[in-house]
């Protein structure tokens, strides 16, 4: 299972689309994209993850990294996560640091 | 990090089978991430050589085994930085060669791959009771963890110890029962789901039974009669002191137990609940000479264990071996470990299992000035952590009252437990002991104050509070040990019928006795500890040693809240009462004087008549009054509080002390009220209209407020 990520910034909102498996081998790709969009000081980070099938602890680390890189005032939205991803976020408590939504903007 | 920022010592100098490495740093011990690599450092004094063994996660065979060059050994420490490793997928261990000479304490075995004593996570038991691969050449695999958890502004709460109400609990038992309705049953995440319950109950500290990685399959067996699987359920048998148990994490199968536990602690702190760990430094899971070689035994047996002159293992723990805690290397490991938990997990306090062992010399003799206990007491990182000793061991060293405290250590007050149990069941001649117990045991701790003692009537060892009043004898058949396990000195009383009964009078008496016990526990000076489920009448069906049961004997049945609603309401009331009244939470002992000239000393003792306490051999009545002007040793004010106990089988008439003008007695709790409420919220307490004759029922306790 591979990993693919694309990013764009629209009206100050950073939008990343993730697909495949986010693990230790692919986390560096996401880190690079976060660093890229962070340089433009976005007001929000939106992760489209409906095609993301697995997130390991390295993937979780990227959410923590994004929060720390962008600052606590920048909200992170996770759009249409699969059940297993939601479970992982819940179990580790990271779900309290992000917003799970069906659409962005809602 | 920019390339030009890399230190020169983070470039490889050696290569072995395409793996690049260089000489490492001796400290810290363990595996530490450095730029582009991992620093491995391990102590071994008597080995002749060592190899670092590297696995891809879950693979049967290692992908590399790198011998430490002789020049990478500095003193008794092997150290090496290995580059370009996948932190998340890596599992590592050590292979040590050296003499196999048990008579002289050496047990090196180069066929074994050994866990790192300083590993921060262990693989192999990622999912609770998942069948292990018994043929695994390396069953308990050291792993790396990330230290980037976002604690935000969290820090240990530093609630004064005299204000704590400790709730001892088992991670899996708390939510494993279907009635918990938790989504993540039996896990750290499950406890987080139940934080609202802990808030409703009112406790402000949870003490988690062992959460260091252990092997639930250790000594597992089938019950000889029933065929039931018996396991190492409680976990008092550590595999690794730095690693949280993966099987206690819903996310353990993803290797995220560290994040899940830290999240739990952070959320408990957000709700003003401290977290204590029950830590087991007295022995390890490697057993005696017949036990497995997992880590310490193969790395440096003679350093880590207390050995007899013949090379066998001293067994002061009752489990096969004894950690050599006052060896300087082991002492440092214990210190490093506790510092790690305090700093990286924000742990608020530690309860040390069989802590008397920590005061023994390598030859087993008790030390006058045990260096480990002294080091812990004065350690700068642990300065704000509470340290609590179980001040005895299985080798007969009993130190309740004289544990080397260094002004810091508290103790589980086993004498409080024993005296309370005897008094509650109506044994005569206990009034003097009860008077000591409710004051914070001043004879036991004359210079250490009330907070030297953690008061408890029940804990994981022994009967539950309900069973204490439902069984005269232990009923341990389910343990498969022919009744030879578990204590026989339970000081219990079945209230007239052994076990479950339809007899309404017996059941009513049991409920009353449980309330009596909770009342005395929560109005005593000292630090109260409640055992999980006692607030709702949990039963273990008379089993007083449920160490091996992963079933309803241990799992908390949440339906008991509804079944024993009156008891649960009463427990909440008494917890709230303690929190509302600082007069119950002194730090120093009473002075029996009245320097403020209020007309009453800080504490006064009574019997059926005021100021006439009956200490005679046959007495079963005892009352005391706290003067609210001396709350918190006179630093604040409170109501007057009067508590009376009657453990006769008949009711008695009490004459109450006269209060200062303008004050009256109100009933906050009366366990003798059979029908209806026996506790009353603040502001609606019934007024006592006749202080000359207050009827206190048989086996009952009252709590009155004078305001």
Automatic annotation (TrEMBL), chain A:
GO MF annotations in UniProt: anti-sigma factor antagonist activity
Domain of life (superkingdom): Bacteria
Transmembrane portions of the chain: none
One Pfam family from the record: STAS
Segments forming domain STAS: 3-106
Family: Belongs to the anti-sigma-factor antagonist family.
Protein name: Anti-sigma factor antagonist
UniProt organism field: Mucilaginibacter galii
Automatic annotation (TrEMBL), chain B:
Entry similarity comment: Belongs to the glycosyl hydrolase 13 family.
Residue ranges annotated for the Glycosyl hydrolase family 13 catalytic domain, each copy included: 168-578
CDD domains membership: AmyAc_Glg_debranch, E_set_GDE_N
GO MF term set: amylo-alpha-1,6-glucosidase activity
Gene Ontology BP terms: glycogen catabolic process
Keyword Transit peptide: yes
Presence of keyword Transit peptide: yes
Species in which this protein is naturally found: Mucilaginibacter galii
Entry keyword set: Glycosidase, Hydrolase, Transit peptide
Superkingdom as given in the UniProt entry: Bacteria
Protein name: Glycogen operon protein GlgX homolog
């Amino acid at each position: 299972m591979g990993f693919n990520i694309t990013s764009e910034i629209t009206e100050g909102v950073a939008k990343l689309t993730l697909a495949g498996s986010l693990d230790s081998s692919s986390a560096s790709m996401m880190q690079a994209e976060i660093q890229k969009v962070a340089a433009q000081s976005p007001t929000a980070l939106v992760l489209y993850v409906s095609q993301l099938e697995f997130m390991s602890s390295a993937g979780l680390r990227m959410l923590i990294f994004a929060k720390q890189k962008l600052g606590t005032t920048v909200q992170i939205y996770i759009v249409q996560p699969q059940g297993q991803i939601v479970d992982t976020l819940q179990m580790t408590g990271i779900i309290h640091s992000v917003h799970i939504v069906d659409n962005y903007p809602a | 990090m920019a390339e030009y920022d890399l230190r020169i010592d983070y470039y490889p100098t050696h290569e072995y089978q395409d793996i690049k490495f260089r000489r490492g740093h001796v400290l810290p011990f363990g595996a530490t991430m450095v730029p582009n690599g991992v620093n491995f450092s391990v102590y071994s004094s008597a080995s002749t050589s060592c190899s670092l063994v590297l696995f891809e996660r879950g693979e049967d065979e290692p992908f590399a085994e790198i011998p430490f060059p002789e020049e990478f050994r500095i003193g008794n420490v092997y150290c090496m930085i290995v580059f370009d490793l996948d932190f998340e997928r890596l599992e590592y261990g050590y292979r040590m060669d050296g003499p196999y000479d048990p008579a002289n304490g050496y047990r090196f075995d180069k066929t074994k791959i050994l866990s790192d004593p300083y590993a921060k996570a262990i693989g192999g038991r990622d999912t609770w009771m998942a069948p292990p691969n018994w043929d695994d050449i390396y069953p308990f695999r050291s792993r790396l963890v990330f230290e980037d958890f976002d604690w935000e502004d969290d820090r240990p709460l530093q609630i004064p110890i005299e204000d704590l109400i400790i709730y001892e609990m088992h991670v899996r038992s708390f939510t494993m029962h279907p009635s918990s309705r938790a989504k993540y049953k039996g896990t750290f995440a499950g406890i987080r789901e139940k934080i609202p319950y802990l808030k409703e109950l009112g406790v402000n500290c949870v003490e988690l039974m062992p959460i260091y990685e252990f092997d639930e399959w250790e000594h597992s067996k089938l019950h000889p009669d029933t065929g039931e699987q018996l396991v190492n359920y409680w976990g008092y048998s550590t595999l690794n002191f730095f690693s949280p148990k993966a099987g206690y994490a819903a996310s353990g199968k993803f290797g995220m137990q560290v994040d899940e536990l830290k999240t739990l602690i952070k959320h408990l702190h957000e709700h003003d609940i401290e977290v204590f760990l029950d830590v087991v430094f007295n022995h390890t899971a490697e057993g005696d000479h017949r036990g497995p070689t997992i880590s310490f035994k193969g790395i440096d047996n003679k350093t880590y264990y207390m050995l007899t002159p013949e090379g066998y293992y001293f067994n002061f723990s009752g489990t096969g071996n004894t950690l050599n805690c006052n060896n300087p290397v082991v002492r440092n490991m214990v210190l490093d470990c506790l510092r790690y938990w305090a700093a990286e997990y924000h742990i608020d306090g530690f309860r040390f299992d069989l802590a008397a062992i920590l005061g023994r010399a390598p030859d087993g003799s008790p030390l006058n000035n045990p260096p480990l206990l002294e080091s812990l007491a004065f350690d700068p990182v642990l300065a704000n952590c509470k340290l609590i000793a179980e001040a005895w061991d299985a080798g007969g060293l009993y130190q309740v009252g004289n544990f080397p405290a260094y002004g810091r250590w508290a103790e589980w007050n086993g004498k409080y437990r024993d005296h309370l149990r005897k008094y509650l069941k109506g044994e005569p001649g206990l009034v003097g002991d009860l008077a000591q117990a409710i004051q914070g045991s001043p004879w036991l701790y004359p210079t250490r104050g009330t907070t030297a003692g953690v008061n408890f009537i029940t804990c994981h060892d022994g009967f539950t509070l309900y069973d204490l009043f439902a069984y005269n004898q232990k009923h341990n058949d389910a343990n498969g040990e022919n009744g030879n396990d578990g204590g026989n000195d339970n000081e219990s009383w079945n209230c007239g019928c052994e076990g479950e009964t339809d007899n309404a009078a017996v059941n009513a008496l049991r409920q009353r006795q449980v309330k009596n016990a909770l009342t005395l526990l929560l109005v005593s000076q000292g630090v109260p500890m409640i055992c999980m489920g006692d607030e709702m009448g949990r039963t273990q069906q008379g089993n007083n040693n449920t160490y091996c049961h992963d079933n309803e004997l241990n799992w908390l049945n949440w339906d008991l809240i509804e079944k024993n609603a009156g008891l649960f309401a009463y427990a909440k009331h008494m917890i709230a009462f303690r929190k509302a009244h600082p007069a119950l939470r002194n730090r120093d002992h009473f002075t029996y004087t009245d320097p403020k000239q209020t007309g009453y000393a800080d504490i006064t003792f009574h019997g059926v008549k005021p100021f006439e306490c009956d200490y005679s051999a046959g007495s079963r009545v005892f009352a005391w009054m706290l003067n609210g002007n001396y709350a918190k040793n006179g630093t604040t004010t409170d109501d007057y509080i009067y508590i009376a106990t009657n453990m006769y089988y008949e009711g008695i008439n009490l004459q109450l002390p006269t209060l200062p003008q303008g004050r009256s007695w109100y009933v906050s709790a009366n366990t003798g009220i059979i029908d209806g409420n026996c506790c009353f919220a603040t502001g609606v307490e019934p007024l006592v209209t006749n202080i000359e004759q207050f009827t206190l029922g048989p086996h009952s306790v009252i709590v009155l407020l004078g305001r």
